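1st attempt posting a full record on here, be nice pls
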Amino acid sequence: MSAWMEKGNLSTWKVIICLLFSTTVVVFFFINSVGTPRSNRSIPKPRGAQKTCPYQVSEQTITPLNNTKHFLVSAYMDQRVNGFSIRIIGIFKRDSIETLHCVFCCEGHLSTTTTPTTILPHSDHFGFPFGTTDVMCQIPENCNAIHVTLVTVPDKVMGFNPIWLPIKNKKINGNEGNKPQFDFTVCISNMFGKYNNVLQFVQTMEIYRLLGVNRVVIYKTSSGPDLDRLLRSYSKEGFLEVVPWPIDQYLKPSSGWLFSQYGGDLHYFGQLTTLNECIYRYMDRSRYMLLNDLDEIIMPYQHNNLMSLMDMLQQQHPNTGVFMIENHIFPKKHFEPSGKFHLPQWNKVPGINILEHIYREDPDRNVYHPHKMIVQPKMVEQTSVHEVLKYSGPLYKVPPEVCRIIHVRVALRGSLTLEQLNVDKRLWDFQEKLISKTDEVLKSVELLGSEGQS
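the predicted structure (as tokens):
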């Protein structure tokens, strides 16, 4: 009996010890899992409101559209056309345009319905397979839209993880009537081919600054190493916005304007698209916009600055939204004979010295002669290079004696002799400040030669 009891007591103690050990282990793991979590442990996210929009927002200027041959560039609030509130600017394959639907990411939720679109290909495409295209649609009710995308099948929104475009130019707190930030913005549609015409670029930028331009916008595919330094300098200062434009990564862009002559996928590195994009980018920020090329200066001839010119033109032609400026070629092969502006400190600076070119061609008015434009952006819907395609209000061709383009380049009428050209020294009216500012800028980026400096 006693032996049995001793054996029973021993078994009882074993059970107790096992229970105590098991309890200790459980407590230890509980404390470590709850009280002192390890830093590398995966902690479940707290329950609560989840993002209902699959946020893959494009940060690029060119975004391929899923399941199509098209590309999206940007989306803007645009309520000027009845029945629509959003304009998406894109580059579409012209023979492959299909039905599309807008999908909106509202603030806090995904729109439950898609909205139909109206697709508006631009009439100017110069025969190229791809062309600038606008897509218009309406924001659904009860949606504070912040992003938009396009789909080919309306009930397959979530099936392919679409890339969203941010909606720009949104009106907030009744800011429609606010004064624009800038009076004049110049849109330079394209820089490509490792462009490195440094001297002409600086002179042009500084002439525009003297004329009252507040901002220059350049869509850049490529530039030369020296010009890159200038772009960084002007951008840091705030006078220049450089918009990346890697069109050559997606299409075969043409370096010419006519498909039958130059081939490729898209006109002149997408010049038509970038001009339109620039208008909408600055529509609410700039009172006037100048649409021209890198080697062109829109120059008033009876006024000292662009504001004085436009004040006169608006007074004489009220409610006009488009002012056409005639192009005048200054052949770069002809030089001012005295050489007074052949400055030694610019000898090693790559590019053209526009002060040396004073001989101007008369346009041949028996053939089409191109213009560039000064526009009020809020009165323009679509533009081409030398004319606007859709706009409101009157259009006015400015007489060349009032304002013309100074365009230093290869001669257009190469058969004209020097004696048949006009002497035009308008740029010399700015010589003192222009030379000083050009030297200052070139020196700041270490491109100014030492010869001739005082």
